[in-house]
Design brief:
The protein contains 15 helices and 16 strands. The chain is α+β, with helices and mostly antiparallel strands. It binds adenosine-5'-triphosphate and magnesium ion. Adenosine-5'-triphosphate (ATP) binds next to strand 6, strand 10, strand 11 and helix 11.
Length: about 425
């Protein structure tokens, strides 16, 4: 026999126990976003490679080494599995002129692909919830985005996630800071690691993001971008902070928090969990007023953030978060040809009444079927033999309560089940 083919490293199956937690999470997220007036959008998983080169920038980790790109064998076009959603979302807004009648609040979710070294909290196919406010200049919307994150953590019962905040100012301010930064790092050139040396002249801001502990004090002593901000940038940053303070949100200003891309400006923020180690950032966002023009559109201010679903679910699991169990109300056990045909009628009829029903399929003995019914976790078994089928009746057997089984006419079954479930729910103080 040949070997079983395995999934690609860093691309994971999400099995049913796990997938139920995902669904529960996705339902919470949908409600939460609706509460803030965000509307869904769905973009393709594959986009032309130049979209990402232009949007994210060619001197970034993502574009330099993390993209899954390939040539379309039919027409030679360069294509890429999307590594993030903002570029595609702004492309869609431009292509369909979505902002023709004013700003838009949009969100999406789904898989993203990055060729990274797989480890805890870092995968090659991972999933994000992306939230984008297009056409808003802030700082009110910047504050609202941060507030809404806090509400989600509260809704999900997550604790120990702290907020880090910074302002990247505008491009001219960053240019001045960049000069000072290069001078600082050049004067300690011998201490720069290979990554930093490579970035010194292409993207020195990104050196501030270095995770190398040996460069930590060098990075900490570097000139701070905040000291180079002009009056307007400072005003935006201060107004944002005032709104956060009003809302009782605590934060740390982290001058090393950067996005080393030209189109990012003003607000950047990250929500970081205290308990996930090096992969602690569960949500990252900021303002990208330059992106629309970078992608060939008219200028539009915009702001957004993305959450890593795997990392959030790791936190949820750590805190004992659990999806509502998806056990059926009813398991249908049947034996005989007549009974099988009647069982289908009963199953569909109970589903019409809003009950969840698992029908036994594949035959087997009455005893084996009852075992399956028990293992399914169902509250009730509905048992149908040929004699029940002939009389249009079923036998109703409680599986979780010490109550007698009894026969019920089919036309009274929905009410009988309703009464039992209601009675037990009441006794148990709600299920
Ligand atoms: P990091 O510094 O951890 O590589 P990043 O700056 O590349 O993060 P963003 O592009 O800002 O991350 O993506 C937003 C969020 O998506 C991250 O905060 C994280 O929660 C999640 N994320 C990013 N890359 C991965 C990955 N490879 N696996 C799982 N989650 C990821
Ligand atoms: Mg990364």
């Amino acid at each position: 026999m040949s070997q079983i083919i395995q999934a690609i490293r860093g691309m994971n199956d999400i099995l049913p126990d796990e997938a139920e937690l995902w669904e529960w999470f996705e339902d919470s997220v949908r409600d939460w976003l609706r509460g803030y007036g965000y509307r869904p959008i769905r973009m393709p998983l594959v986009e032309p490679t130049p979209l990402f080169a232009r949007a994210i920038g060619t001197v970034t980790d993502i574009v330099e080494k993390e993209m899954y790109s390939f040539t379309d064998s039919l027409n030679g076009e360069q294509l890429t599995l999307r590594p993030e959603g903002t570029a595609g979302c702004v492309r869609a807004a431009l292509q369909h002129n979505l902002l023709y009648d004013g700003p838009k609040r949009l969100w999406y979710q789904g898989p993203m692909f990055r060729h990274e070294r797989p480890q805890k909290g870092r995968y090659r196919q991972f999933h994000q919830i992306g939230v984008e406010a297009l056409g808003f200049s802030g700082p009110d919307i910047d504050a609202e985005m941060i507030l809404m994150c806090r509400r989600l953590w509260d809704d999900l019962g997550l604790e120990g996630i702290h907020l880090e905040l910074n302002s990247l100012g505008q491009i001219e301010e960053r240019q001045q800071h960049r000069g000072a930064l290069i001078a600082h790092f050049e004067s300690h050139a011998a201490r720069l690691d290979a990554d930093a040396q490579r970035r010194l002249h292409s993207n020195p801001l990104r050196i501030l993001d270095s995770k190398n502990p040996e460069m930590r004090d060098l990075v900490e002593a570097a000139p701070k971008l905040l000291d180079y901000l002009g009056a307007d940038s400072l005003k935006h940053f201060e107004a944002l902070q005032a709104l956060l303070k009003d809302a009782g949100i605590s934060y740390q200003i982290n001058p090393r928090l950067v996005r080393g891309l030209d189109y990012y400006n003003l607000t950047v923020f990250e929500w970081v969990s205290d308990s996930l180690g090096a992969q602690g950032t569960v949500c990252a966002g900021g303002r990208y007023d330059g992106l629309f023009t970078q992608l060939g559109g008219k200028p539009q201010p915009a702001c957004g953030f993305a959450m890593g679903i795997e990392r959030l679910l790791m936190l949820l699991r750590e805190r004992g978060g659990k999806a509502a169990s998806h056990v059926p109300d009813i398991y249908i056990v049947h034996q005989g040809d007549q009974a099988l045909r009647f069982a289908f009628v009963v199953a569909e009829g109970m589903r019409d009444n809003g009950y969840t029903v698992q029908m036994h399929c594949g035959g087997s003995s009455f005893k084996a079927q009852m075992k399956r019914a028990d293992a399914s976790g169902a509250t009730l078994a509905v048992i149908i033999g040929d004699d029940e089928a002939a009389a249009e009746e079923v036998t109703l057997k409680p599986l979780r309560e010490a109550a007698e089984q009894h026969r019920v006419a089919y036309d009274q079954l929905a009410d009988a089940i309703g009464a039992l479930l209601f009675e037990w729910e009441d006794e148990n103080g709600g299920i």
